[in-house]
Write a structure and sequence with these properties.
- The structure holds 2 protein chains of 2 kinds.
- In chain A, strand 7, helix 5 and strand 8 form a beta-alpha-beta unit.
- Chain A is built from 9 helices and 32 strands.
- In chain A, helix 2 crosses helix 3, helix 2 runs parallel beside helix 4 and helix 3 crosses helix 4.
- In chain A, the strands form 7 sheets. Chain A has a 6-stranded mixed β-sheet, with helices on both faces.
- By secondary structure, chain A is an alpha+beta fold.
- The radius of gyration of chain A is 27 Å and the shape is elongated.
- Chain A has 3 domains: 223 residues, 3-Layer(aba) Sandwich (Rossmann fold); 105 residues, Nucleic acid-binding proteins (OB fold (Dihydrolipoamide Acetyltransferase, E2P)), CATH 2.40.50; 128 residues, Nucleic acid-binding proteins (OB fold (Dihydrolipoamide Acetyltransferase, E2P), Beta Barrel).
- Chain B folds into 2 domains: 74 residues, no CATH class; 171 residues, MetI-like (MetI-like fold, Orthogonal Bundle).
- Chain B contains 11 helices and no strands.
- Chain B starts with a helix and ends with a helix.
- The chains are: A alpha+beta, B mainly alpha.
- At the A-B interface, strand 6 and helix 2 of A face helix 7 and helix 8 of B.
Chain lengths: 479, 262
Amino acid sequence: METKENIIELKHIGKSFDDGFAAVSDFNLEVKRGEFVTFLGPSGCGKTTTLRMIAGFEIPSEGEILLNGQSITELPPHKRPINTVFQRYALFPHMNIYENIAFGLKQKKTPKEEIDRRVTKVLDLVDLEGFEQRSVSTLSGGQQQRIAIARALVNEPQILLLDEPLGALDLKMRKEMQLELKSMHEKLGITFIYVTHDQEEALTMSDKIVVMSEGKIQQIGTPEDIYNEPKNAFVADFIGESNIFNGIMTGKLKARFCGGEFACVDDIEEGTHITAVVRPEDVIFTEPGKGTIDGTVTSVIFKGMHYEITVQSGKNEMVIQTVNSAAPGDKVGMKVEPNNIHIMIAEDHTNVFNADINKAFHLEYNGTVLDTSVTRIIKGSKRMEDGTLIDGHGEVVDIDRTKIQISIRPEDIDMTDNAEEGLVQGYISNLIYKGDHYSYVIHSDLGQDFIVDDEDLWNMNDTVGLIMPVEKMKFAVKR
Amino acid sequence: MKKTVKIGYIALILLFIYIPILILAVYSFTDTANIGAKGHFSVKNYITLFTTEELLQMIIGTVLLAFGVAVLATILGTLGALGAFYSKKRISSAISVLNQVPVVNADVVTGFGICILLVVVFGVSKDTYIPLLVGQTTLCAPFVYLSVMPKIRQMDSSIYEAALDLGATPFTALWRVVIPQIVPGILSGFALAVTLSLDDYFIATYTKPATFDTISTYVVNATKGSQTSIKTALWALSTVIFVLVILFVLVMSLRSAKKEEG
């Protein structure tokens, strides 16, 4: 095998549109010859825009794209040795299959005999031998997709770009095509850059995954890295199912989150605020009282291969996948093996908790009604005359299933000695001096830890009330 | 009962539409000079029509003008629609609003405006045919735009990019990939432009050379005049045009029916 040099490099690529929307910012990536790289992210994360910049359909507002070390940043698409497979195939309907595939070669004035030979060969590769004279409209979606791939591959591009190419196919076809694309990639040795929002597809096919959100790279790594060692809460949440908790390091290899103290393998300094990620399949049930935390089963869903069980532990919710069933109302204990807890240093210490909507459509937390209007929080909602609440899409809001997620920053919470004055009561379980203020962890009676920044020194284990001004809270609707 | 009423109603409406032209057609085959008067079967109107040099010149001139205008309007309208489609949204909607104005605007205003601009302001002589061509092209191009636009919208917009991606220059991509997709829209736009030019009276009167007449301007002048043989020959002309139109419509609808089957 030849030494693997970078075939394409994206350096500080940014793209802002005329309306000021920044689709991509400071995107840096190196792709090695022959790699299968996937851009993965929710819709609107900038993955397709990045692909279009590589193809040449968009010119970056900032940065540089190097192909084999040469800048192609502003080279028009027809001069790039790069071909694209489009999301909706983009076959030419007025040409037959042969003409579609031969189109690229004809532009390069390839001799007729060679075109014939290469078209036959590439049709063989995509398993559609003898389709030369068929018209596009007689082909099924899956066959059109294969022709689109053949039409790109016949030009022997240095890089093949694929923009959600399997999005329009049904599940079975999609699985089949995933494997076929993977084997085509291995056979041809062409660099593939693939765009998808389907995390499973990305994990199955890629050598390297680039997880994107809001125009920024969240993490670059192998599928294993991304799954096992997500760099932040977004990646953990997007790749597979996760339980994500805010917490704090309470000692050497000890972390406190979800109302319990867990042993872990990440050596992080005591007192550091962390985000802990636990995969649903890694939670082990025990007898009540024998695990790290206890809880009550609130829902059990049969998923075919396993049960998905939700357990309420204090104010925290844990989702567990297991082959053994349980019944709602069961009291259970839970533990997690230390190496199955993934700990990330939290960049953001914002306190997040869920409040309920009560029967009178007021926001209620810990038995206290908050002085705010639910209709203002749920966008476009209004109270109807029959007493129900309608959201912006005209659907009735089910107050039992709708939660309002409240976030509040540590510096916006005040502590008081008169515990009853506060929205939440608890005791100070940890404090760290941060130069100009102390950062406290309050272990609340509800089982949730709150982080509070305060300039004054309070004593460990003091019982305090937490005053949270409603105007400092941010609200989000959760179903 | 209900069915008879329905059919009767439709028949009545169609009768009102077709009876005037049928009367004209019937009288074009008689030797009388007044509609309503009794006459005998005769093809002299047709003989006059196809032998009078002046009439033939006028018909050929009108048809040549219509096709010339249609070619110009089709090119402009198609390019305009393509340009608007691939422009940014704000520019695109501005273009489509501006395109609506000449469509809705009264022809007499357009014709008078063109006449003022070209003849008075720029001093172009009407004898050059330029004001006439420009005027009728202005009338027709927006309609071509309107008939091409839906076809462009129906087209998968990524095929242009796909062609570029496969190494075609922007011109090749347009010519070999995009244009073939919108040919039906271009053709119906062209046909529309031909009919609009044939129909036009106002723009032609304001902009045509003094010695040249289109069918419309000629018919208006002739009906005012006293040359009865020419007047009755125009009945024959109307009939011929009507038959041609019927044939054209029949062929078109048969073709599209066939296409749907196959």
